[in-house]
Amino acid sequence: MSESEPRGELSIRQVAMPANLNAGGNIFGGWLLAQMDIAGGITASDRAKGRVATVAITAMEFHNPVYVGDVLSCYADVRKVGNTSITIHVQAWVHRRDGSKTNEIKVTEGDFVFVALNEDGSKRAVPPA
Predict the structure, then answer these.
(1) 65 occurs within a structural domain
(2) Which domain holds residue 53?
(3) What own/partner pairs with CB < 8 Å and gap ≥ 24 does 62-66 have?
(4) Is residue 122 part of a domain?
């Protein structure tokens, strides 16, 4: 985890709120996963030029906790395009607003696989870029 800056395009930003805490007092990993899925879905939908659905998360690493008040930023980039699927790598970084010296910290990253869908919800081919 030696990266000093995010990779990919900024997809979403969100403030971590008290409602998203787990029993240990940190932000619940499921909330973080949901934000990353939304970010990946935006990028996949743009690339597919239409509807997509998440079909798999093939890798996920949690590096650092997220705290209430942290500003979460999710960055996404296309890693692979198949006939009907798109793999998106998503990095989640936080900006700590607690006065610490380290303001930007990578907290999580993962690979999300989406499938392109047509109007009736069945798979369709991903159009050329």
Answers:
(1) yes
(2) 9-116
(3) 62/29, 62/32, 62/107, 62/108, 63/1, 63/106, 63/107, 63/108, 63/109, 64/94, 64/105, 64/106, 64/107, 65/26, 65/27, 65/107, 66/16, 66/26, 66/27, 66/32, 66/92, 66/94, 66/107
(4) no
Q: How many residues does the chain have?
A: 129
Its pTM surpasses 0.85: yes
Residue 95 belongs to some domain of the structure: yes
As for how many domains the chain has, the answer is 1
pLDDT tens for the chain, 129 residues long, are 457 899 999 999 999 999 999 999 999 999 999 999 999 999 999 999 999 999 999 999 999 999 999 999 999 999 999 999 999 999 999 999 777 666 789 999 999 999 999 999 999 999 998
Asked if residue 4 belongs to a domain, the reply is: no
